[in-house]
Amino acid sequence: MGIVGFVSDYVTDNLGSRKKKRKPNQTVEIKVKMDCDGCERRIKNAVSSVKGVKSVKVDRKQSKVTVNGYAEATKVLKKVESTGKKAELWPYVPYNSVAYPYVPQAYDKKAPPGYVKKAPQALPVDEALDQRLTMMFSDENPNACSIM
Question: Which parts of the sequence belong to the HMA domain (predicted)?
Answer without folding.
Answer: 25-88
